[in-house]
Design goal:
The protein has 244 residues and is of the alpha+beta class. It starts with 9 loop residues before the first strand and ends with a strand. The longest helix has 16 residues. It folds into 2 domains: 111 residues, no CATH class; 119 residues, Cathepsin B, Chain A. The protein is 34% helix and 22% strand. Keywords: Membrane, Transmembrane, Transmembrane helix.
Length: 244
């Protein structure tokens, strides 16, 4: 649904990624690399959206995105890491144990937009119904603006500090027939498209996570939110045009 192809990074021997990957940062590296590797999914999601905006509209290019965007070639992993680390030093400084709070990401995005003279504003949204959630996602993507989706923890983990294996499946295909990852939660992903399967009521979200393309069954996501999570922790960040 978005007008431009999503962010790609040239990965040695593997072609190009679909978005950035926190695992490119060394687990045994310095503190910054370690924190991004362990808890940097929100920062990666935001950094990728900044790159997507810059590629879609030259008005949204900044000194940060110009570090790695070239017309002729996709950025390398090393270039991408330098870009993300520059955003970290400017806007993040520290990532707590549970990962970046959603309001920190919203603040970071709005500081970036305002500091670079953009007519954009990030907003935290937690629509309580599945129909409302879907309409919010569709509207953003129709305007060529990706959505950050938070796959939140279960209620037991939030309030009772009980760990469990309940989470979401990430699929390899639009039919959601082949599972690639299970039990995914407490994780930010970027929604790049919403697909309605012809002749059915099935809705599928196309997402970027860990540098790869995955699919989420939208009904499974909504059931997870209603049965195990809640609309606050399993929420989303959208981008609007700023009103004058």
């Amino acid at each position: 649904m978005m007008g431009a192809e999503y962010v790609k990074v040239k990965v040695l021997h593997d072609g190009c990624s679909f978005g950035g990957n926190q695992n490119w940062f060394a687990l045994d590296g310095d503190r910054t690399e370690y924190r991004i590797h362990k808890r940097g999914c929100g920062l990666i999601a935001v950094g990728d959206i900044f790159l997507h905006l810059a590629r879609t509209d030259s008005r949204y290019r900044t000194p940060y995105t110009s570090m790695i965007l070239r017309d002729e070639a996709e950025p390398s992993v090393a270039e991408y890491k330098r870009y993300i680390q520059s955003l970290y030093r400017k806007y993040v400084w520290f990532i707590p144990g549970p990962g970046m709070w959603v309001m920190h990401l919203v603040w970071m995005m709005n500081q970036y937009f305002k500091g670079n003279g953009m007519d954009l504003k990030a907003r935290w949204r937690f629509p309580p119904t599945r129909g409302w959630r879907k309409s919010v996602i569709k509207k953003s993507l129709k305007n060529h603006l990706p959505v950050i989706l938070l796959l939140g923890r279960t209620r037991g983990e939030i309030f009772l500090l009980m760990k469990n294996k309940i989470g979401l499946n990430l699929y390899a295909d639009e039919e959601c027939s082949r599972i690639l990852k299970t039990g995914v939660k407490n994780h930010y992903v970027v929604v790049t498209d919403i697909l309605q399967k012809p002749g059915t009521k099935k809705t599928v979200l196309k997402i970027s996570s860990w540098g790869k393309l995955y699919y989420i069954d939208y009904d499974e996501y909504c059931r997870y939110v209603s049965r195990y999570g809640d609309p606050i922790t399993s929420s989303m960040i959208i981008i609007d045009k700023r009103r004058n």
